[in-house]
Amino acid sequence: MLKTDVAIIGGGPAGSTLGSLLKKYSPTMDVTIIEREKFPRDHIGESHTPAISAILDEMGVWDKIEAAEFPIKIGATFKWGATKDLWDTDFLHSEKFRDEPRPAKFVDQRKRTAFQTDRSIYDKILLDHAKELGCRVFEQTKVSSIDVKGDKVLGLNITSEDPEVTEYVGDDDRIQAKYYVDCTGEVGMLRRALNITIDAPTALRNIAFYQYFNDAKWAITLGTGGTRIQIMSLDWGWLWFIPITPSRTSVGVVLPADYYKNSGKTVEELYHEAISTEPLIRELIASATPEPGVFATKDWNFLSDRLVGENWFLSGDSCGFADPILSAGMTLAHTSARKVAFTILELNRGLVDPEWLKHEYEEGHRAQIKHHMQFADFWYSSNGQFKDLKEYCQEIAETAGLTLDPETAFRWLATGGFTLDEPGIAAALTYRVSGLKLVAVQLGVSPPEWEIMKTNSWKLDFEGAREDKFVRYLNGRVLPIPCMKRGTKILPLIDSFKHAVNGLRRHTDSIAILEDCVNAMIDQDHIDAEDAKLLTIEALETMHLEGWITGTVNPDRPYIKVN
């Protein structure tokens, strides 16, 4: 029998991220990763967001990923909603993207970009990196059964095609650990063994068909390796076009499961029909060579009722799955693995209340998954070819403590309706408030207004709020940080929010508050002036949207202008 500190079931991005961060911050910890397949192997989920880039750097694997020459994602091109025009939404504006040689370091503009990855290459790099850091990695090894008692995992029983595994595990093929983590994706092996139920809190029930092409054209090339993914809506679904290496491209179609069932057509027939009806993608792959096989996968949103227990955690897609329209899956996998790693490290230190640690991971990550689902629902509801979900948007608003009619709720989502992610970041998950307002215009929603442009004399409104603690995951630690809490609203008192609160305590004039906050971010946080101004505007807008600021009009003073 093998005894280990942490047993990780699944060696995909969640499992390898978890193992790497555990070994980085606690090199003496004994970590075992059990993976049923032999890498490399293909997998969808190729498109990243910039949040992943920072985690790759923290893991120490950035240089290896960059050396693989994956395309640099600066954003996405969409054809969506009422208009048939193409429009872009970027992490880094194309005009600001500088051509530079590769491989490049994780500095400057690369902190604001992402990757588009061939998962057969990407996942193997990550798993090999975890092994190099000291994780024990068993490939071609299946967890045949899991022994549980109540809410506690007692051990894993394995079978392996690798004879070396027996040398570690012994003849009884059993692994015991202090902590167990389920990184098996939607299979949810540990989740199922513990009889944890799942919910599908969304109206979306989609499936995906996909194929790989060699030597397809790129829709856009920026400098050395820069590009955008392409998202093109159809009358009955949407297509993705994602270059994943300099020569290999993933092309897929997402459609309602009911449409497929009622069509009477095969997977291949619907896939080729989708390609034939979209002129841009049809042109891009006209001279490309398709690889054998059109593959299918269900793309159904779900959320696990629990993510943590007595000695176990769920991470990655075992926690839940959000529609891929916003490239959320890989971001959620990496971020959840990072949170689980830091939580286990903190539990071992014994300095923080263990129940608080578990609660913050479970509630925080469940909220992130749900918010991605909700934003996907908003996105689909803006496309007339999909079921109108405006009434569901009303339910989303109610989860944030707002009572709105469906049309108002729909517009609320378009203007930054959920603004809470990592504390200190005025963002709607990976989509910042400023970006959401631009997206709203492109989707045909009424032009959104900036609340901070409507008044110019402000004061803090903490009525009914109480001082509380919020969680921050930083440098291997899980830290309780101060915040104000009122109902479902949380205002972290750090970073741009902290500076905004301080500015509001010193001034009432909106422009003076803005200047005070920008200067503090430049002087204290060493953020350049342009980013400091945008972060401050987003923080102040967030505080207005969530009711932390009340405003009046001073006719003798000018207003803040947002371009």
Q: What's the short story on this structure?
A:
By secondary structure, this protein is an alpha+beta fold. It has 17 helices and 26 strands.
Number of helices: 17
Poorly predicted tracts of residues: 385-389, 410-432
**CATH class call of the largest domain:** Alpha Beta
* Arithmetic mean of pLDDT: 87
Portion in strands: 25-35%
- Gross CATH architecture of the largest domain: 3-Layer(bba) Sandwich
Class computed from helices, strands and strand pairing = alpha+beta
Per the principal axes of the C-alpha atoms, what is the gross shape? globular
How many domains make up the 3D coordinates?
Answer: 3
Roughly how many Å apart are the termini? Answer: 64 Å
Q: What do we call the CATH homologous superfamily of the largest domain?
A: FAD/NAD(P)-binding domain
Provide the helix percentage. Answer: 25-40%
CATH fold title of the largest domain: FAD/NAD(P)-binding domain
Radius of gyration: 24 Å
- Largest sheet entry: 9 strands, mixed
Number of strands: 26
Verbal overview:
The protein is α+β, with helices and mostly antiparallel strands and 563 residues long. It folds into three domains: 204 residues, FAD/NAD(P)-binding domain (3-Layer(bba) Sandwich), CATH 3.50.50; 94 residues, no CATH class; 101 residues, Enolase-like, domain 1 (2-Layer Sandwich), CATH 3.30.390. 36% of the residues lie in helices and 25% in strands. Strands 3, 4, 5, 11, 12, 13, 14, 15 and 16 form a nine-stranded mixed beta sheet that branches. Strands 1, 2, 6, 7, 8, 9 and 18 form a seven-stranded mixed beta sheet that branches. Helix 1 links the parallel strand 1 and strand 2. Helix 11 runs antiparallel to helix 12 and helix 16 packs across helix 17. About 5% of the residues have low confidence.
